[in-house]
Amino acid sequence: MKIALFGITRDIVGQPTLELPAPAPATVGALLDHLRANYPALGQLRSCAVAVNNEYAPADQALGPNDEIALIPPVAGG
Amino acid sequence: MTPHLSITDQPIDVAAALAAVQTEAAGAVNSFIGTVRNQSGGRRVRRLHYESYDSMALTQLGHVVAQAYAKWPMLEKVAVVHRKGTLALGDVAVVVAVATPHRAESFAACQFIIDTLKQVVTIWKREEYEDGTEWVAAHP
């Protein structure tokens, strides 16, 4: 499973994408739990969402092998 | 009507964004122009860096504009252009332009689009100060 990182999440992890070995987390919630356990600084952000195929994804959403997955820290456009 | 939406690393042509929404069916064109300010939270800002997850940003921007069309069915045309990359003080960071038959809806729709954009569109801002940098809004 490959996860694209943006903004402060890229700084926290230290690279622009993260490759997770199998077995990959089955849901958005499991992925976030896994990442927060490995990178505690993610838990200190105001928010950290997961995007699946360019849409914000709820915690119970299942993750598939062909999904485009990204970590979305608090946005600040405008 | 297909909105004019883009994210660019080139300086924004404000006149072109306004021209993109002009139509004889609209009596009102309203715009919001966001520019780079020289201070933030009491700290002097030297410049800004915007990072964008382009494909998602355009998808979410499309949703925002679709919501605006649903709320204001009389909306004629919409243009949103957001800059990314490194910006100097005074540079234009974002332009929202809307055209409607009458002015009241143009103010409301323009404000809705910029306010909602700031909540959902996947663009991040890193401010550069005299003494360091910070991702805006990242921490509580």
Structural class of chain B comes to: alpha+beta
Q: Please name the two chains that share the biggest interface, counting residues whose Cβ lies under 8 Å from a Cβ on the partner chain.
A: A-B, 20 and 30 residues
Oligomer state equals: heterodimer
**What is the assigned CATH homologous superfamily of chain B?**
Molybdopterin biosynthesis MoaE subunit
Strand order across the largest sheet of chain A = 2-1-5-3-4
CATH class of chain A: Alpha Beta
Q: Gyration radius of chain A, to the nearest Å?
A: 12 Å
Q: What is the first-to-last residue Cα distance of chain A?
A: 32 Å
Name of the top-level CATH class of chain B: Alpha Beta
SSE layout and pairing:
The complex is a heterodimer of chains A (78) and B (140).
Chain A (H helix, E strand, L loop, with lengths): L1 E4 L1 H7 L3 E3 L8 H11 L10 E4 L2 E2 L12 E4 L6
Parallel strand pairs in A: 1-5
Antiparallel strand pairs in A: 1-2, 3-4, 3-5
Chain B lengths: L3 E5 L5 H8 L6 E8 L3 E2 L2 E10 L1 H18 L5 E7 L1 E4 L3 E9 L2 H18 L2 E7 L2 E4 L5
Parallel strand pairs in B: 1-5
Antiparallel strand pairs in B: 2-7, 3-4, 4-6, 4-8, 5-7, 8-9
Helix pairs in contact in B: 2-3
Describe the protein's architecture and organization.
- With 78 residues, chain A is α+β, with helices and mostly antiparallel strands.
- Chain A has a single domain, classed as Beta-grasp domain (Ubiquitin-like (UB roll)), CATH 3.10.20.
- Chain A contains two helices and five strands.
- Chain A has a five-stranded mixed sheet with strand order 2-1-5-3-4.
- Chain B has 140 residues and is α+β, with helices and mostly antiparallel strands.
- Chain B contains three helices and nine strands.
- Chains A and B meet through helix 1 and strand 4 of A and strand 4, helix 2, helix 3 and strand 8 of B.
